[in-house]
């Protein structure tokens, strides 16, 4: 371990040399109350910025142990610290000058969801805190400007660290409320299933967002109202709407807030920050949005419970295509969600393939069952619940067929939910029910195995790129995630890219099925930390 004065004199020595001289700064330096690590130095002033980290001993950071004694509190605490660090760091970015990215400081920008990140971590056994961030090492042209780096690391950064990473210096009441909310959220999530629920939406929740491109809450909206209750450790009793297990239909006129409710449920798998309006919109953590995804590729997926006897004779037990249709893509999305052991499907008519969702009586009479390759979702929905314990929440504005299989029917009326189950069921009696398939279908087959990424091991360099939330690429292969709507942050996309790469290099072997590989991967992340998958 070197002292910070070592770094100071090193900087003096390399000033005005060629840019690569910065490489010699790599290492860890003692700054008294914290350690600064220069982990990776950029190749030139225009390349991706250098990677640095701050390490504060638990003794000096001083956060109460009760704020990080469970995983979810660690996530909430670190999320909050990342936000504080981001705020102070943005204020000092580009205060030092020069060419290219000279003077830049950056760290993860957190959105409305509270997510585990590698940016900030706490060691639960001693409270040590680490924060990873980036800095653009200053240059004039391509010459080292070490005086400016001295200003960044000795002049600007210390105040920023001290005001955001030490308990004694931050707003303690605010942090306390963050931890308390996370405990309340955890209480709801933990008890959902034993209360027979798949989701809960507290009264007063603000579901709509400001706009299609902003995740901030819409102001002056109609707040959510409903009659169920929950007892929380900090908030006390909270009222709202519990959505029971089974099949729930959300109906209502156009523009009455159906899709907005479903969207909130989709993101209810995450905790939301204080002030978001969806703090107490909590969904079963395994919930999956199921939608049509024309053009997606499908590899060895057993979609035979929905698609059979295709006119081209294609096998639907190990179904492969580079370019799926609406219905086959939605079938694959259902089966893959089953493969992940999801126990709640979220479906919006707006983003579904009609021929996948329903086939009405008249059509059944004209086009006979054995002439139609598709067994629509409506004929499997009860089976999914009764045989596989998978609940569904379906938004339907135009099609009444789902009234029959539904257990609960909620009408959104001017943004307020109403339970109309009895009335709707009564009305449905006069209409014919869809006939169900006669034969019992075998369980879907999940033994698809993927080969190890030996071709990647041979490459000299593996290049990983993230394209916003929409996609990542590993060398020349791109994985399109545009329609995986529950991804909310570009860093999740990046993490998925690294997770896939890690699995390809270390876990897949052509013999283990995909579920085993995914379980092993999650096990590694849980025991060794998320950053393990970064160094493949
Ligand atoms: P539907 O799916 O029923 O047609 P949407 O959920 O798309 O309706 O909502 C229609 C519009 O109403 C959207 O612009 C949405 O932002 C807005 N909206 C939704 N919920 C509320 C609310 N509680 N208060 C005010 N506006 C809302
Ligand atoms: Mg809609």
Q: Count the E strands.
A: 28
Low-confidence stretches: none
Helical/strand content category? alpha+beta
Distance between the termini: 27 Å
What is the helix fraction of residues, given as a range? 25-40%
Mean pLDDT: 94
Protein model, in words:
The protein has 536 residues and is an alpha+beta fold. It contains 14 helices and 28 strands. Strand 1 (2-3), helix 1 (4-14) and strand 2 form a beta-alpha-beta unit. Helix 3 (71-92) packs across helix 4 and helix 13 (490-507) crosses helix 14. It is globular, with a radius of gyration of 27 Å. The chain starts with a strand and ends in an 8-residue tail after the last helix. The model has no long low-confidence stretch (mean pLDDT 94). The site of magnesium ion (MG) has 3 residues, from helix 6.
Question: What's the helix and strand layout?
Answer:
Layout: E1 2-3, H1 4-14, E2 27-30, E3 35-40, E4 50-56, H2 58-61, H3 71-92, E5 105-106, E6 113-114, E7 120-122, E8 129-135, E9 139-140, E10 143-144, H4 146-164, H5 172-192, E11 197-202, E12 209-211, E13 214-217, E14 228-232, E15 236-244, E16 247-251, H6 258-267, E17 271-272, E18 281-283, E19 288-290, E20 298-301, E21 319-321, H7 326-339, E22 344-348, H8 354-357, H9 361-366, H10 381-388, E23 391-395, E24 408-413, E25 416-419, H11 421-428, H12 454-458, E26 464-467, E27 471-474, E28 477-480, H13 490-507, H14 514-528
Parallel strand pairs: 1-2, 16-23, 16-24, 19-22, 22-23
Antiparallel strand pairs: 2-3, 3-4, 4-8, 5-8, 6-17, 7-8, 9-10, 11-15, 11-18, 12-13, 14-15, 20-21, 24-25, 26-27, 27-28
Helix pairs in contact: 1-4, 3-4, 3-5, 13-14
The structure holds adenosine-5'-diphosphate and magnesium ion.
């Amino acid at each position: 371990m070197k002292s910070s004065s070592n770094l100071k004199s090193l900087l003096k020595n390399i000033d005005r040399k060629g840019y690569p001289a910065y490489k010699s700064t790599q290492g860890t330096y003692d700054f008294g109350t914290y350690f600064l690590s220069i982990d990776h130095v950029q190749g030139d002033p225009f390349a991706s910025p250098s990677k640095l980290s701050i390490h504060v001993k638990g003794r000096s950071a001083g956060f109460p142990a009760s704020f990080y004694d469970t995983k979810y509190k660690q996530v909430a605490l670190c999320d909050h610290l990342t936000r504080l660090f981001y705020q102070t760091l943005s204020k000092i970015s580009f205060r030092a000058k020069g060419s290219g990215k000279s003077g830049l400081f950056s760290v993860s920008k957190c959105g409305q969801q509270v997510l585990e990140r590698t940016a900030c971590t706490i060691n639960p056994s001693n409270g040590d805190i680490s924060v990873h961030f980036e800095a653009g090492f200053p240059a004039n042209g391509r010459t080292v400007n070490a005086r400016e780096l001295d200003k960044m690391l000795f002049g600007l950064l210390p105040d920023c660290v001290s005001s955001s990473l030490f308990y004694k210096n931050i707003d303690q009441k605010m942090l306390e409320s963050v931890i308390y909310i996370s405990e309340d959220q955890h209480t709801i999530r933990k008890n959902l299933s034993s209360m027979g629920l798949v989701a809960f939406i507290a009264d007063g929740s603000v579901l709509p967002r400001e706009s299609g491109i902003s995740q901030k809450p819409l102001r002056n909206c109609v707040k959510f109202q409903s009659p169920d209750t929950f007892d929380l450790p900090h908030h006390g009793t909270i009222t709202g709407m519990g959505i029971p297990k089974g099949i729930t239909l959300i109906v209502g006129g156009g523009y009455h807030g159906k899709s907005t409710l479903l969207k909130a449920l989709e993101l209810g798998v995450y905790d939301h920050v204080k002030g978001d309006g969806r703090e107490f919109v909590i969904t079963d953590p395994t919930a999956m949005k199921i939608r049509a995804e024309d053009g997606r590729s499908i590899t060895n997926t057993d979609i035979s419970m929905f698609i059979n006897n295709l006119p081209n004779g294609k096998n639907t037990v190990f179904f492969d295509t580079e370019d799926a249709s609406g219905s086959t893509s939605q079938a694959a999305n259902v089966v893959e969600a089953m493969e992940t052991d999801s126990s709640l499907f979220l479906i919006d008519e707006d983003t579904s393939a009609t021929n996948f969702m329903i086939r009405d009586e008249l059509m059944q009479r004209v086009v006979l069952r054995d002439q139609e390759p598709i067994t629509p979702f409506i004929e499997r929905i009860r089976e999914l619940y009764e045989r596989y314990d998978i609940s569904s929440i379906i938004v339907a504005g135009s099609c009444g067929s789902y009234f029959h299989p539904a257990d609960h029917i909620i009408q959104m009326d001017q943004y307020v939910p109403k339970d109309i189950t009895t009335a709707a069921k009564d009305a449905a009696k006069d209409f014919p029910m869809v006939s169900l398939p006669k034969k019992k279908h075998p369980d879907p087959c999940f033994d698809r195995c993927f080969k190890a990424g030996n071709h990647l091991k041979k490459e000299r360099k593996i290049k990983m790129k993230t394209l916003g939330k929409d996609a990542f690429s590993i060398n020349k292969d791109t994985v399109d995630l545009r329609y995986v709507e529950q991804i909310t942050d570009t860093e999740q996309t990046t993490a998925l890219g690294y997770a896939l790469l890690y699995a390809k290099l270390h876990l897949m072997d052509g013999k283990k099925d995909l579920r085993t590989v995914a379980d092993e991967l999650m096990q590694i992340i849980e025991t060794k930390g998320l950053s393990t998958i970064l160094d493949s």
